[in-house]
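Re: [ENG-882] Designed sequences occasionally contain unexpected residues at chain ends

Forwarding the minimal case from QA. Structure tokens:
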């Protein structure tokens, strides 16, 4: 599985950008998964639900399965947070794992920047930043994208990771992606 990240400070638009790039990758025939880092406590369960009650009772892992989805919740109960490599190994096999957050992790990533949310430029000190997506002109030698260039960003990621986009694409989309790859 290939891994590629999106990094930036809070409010830069990482989630929105990923949300718009993923369909470009999936429509290109890739199976994509995502790991998102949260800097705060979070819960995906609701108090009173069976799975919440089982976790509260002391279960380390609670897996909920239905015909539509499977969800695994793991309580760390004081154990250290798993590192990124371990989290990737927990995923089902796929073509590409996108990482949101983990801004200092040693993996290729696009820095997401927004003029309305000024923050230090990660690409100036992080050699793993390979491109920048922004709503303004950035002073960098790296490949830059406008935040709305979703197809071009998807094509860049595929080219950077040497990921072939399977032939499930529509012929017109395949030509467009090929053009983006040549000019990207």
């Amino acid at each position: 599985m290939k891994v590629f990240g999106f990094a930036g400070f809070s409010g830069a638009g990482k989630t929105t950008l990923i949300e718009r790039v993923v369909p470009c990758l999936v429509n290109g025939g890739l199976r994509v998964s995502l790991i998102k880092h949260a800097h705060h406590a979070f819960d995906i369960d609701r108090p009173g639900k069976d799975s919440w009650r089982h976790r509260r009772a002391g279960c380390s892992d609670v897996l909920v399965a239905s015909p539509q989805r499977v969800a695994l919740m793991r309580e760390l109960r004081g154990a250290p947070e798993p590192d990124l490599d371990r989290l990737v190994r927990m995923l089902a096999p796929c073509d590409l794992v996108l990482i949101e957050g983990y801004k200092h992790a040693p993996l290729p990533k696009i820095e997401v920047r927004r003029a309305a949310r000024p923050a230090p430029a990660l690409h100036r000190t992080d050699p793993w930043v390979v491109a920048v997506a922004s709503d303004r002109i950035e002073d960098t030698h790296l490949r830059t994208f406008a935040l709305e260039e979703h197809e071009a960003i998807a094509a860049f990621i595929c080219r950077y990771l040497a990921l072939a986009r399977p032939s499930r694409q529509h012929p017109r989309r395949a030509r467009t992606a090929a053009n983006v790859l040549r000019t990207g």
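QA comment: On inspection the terminal residues look reasonable. The first helix runs from residue 14 to 27. Proposing we downgrade this to a documentation issue.
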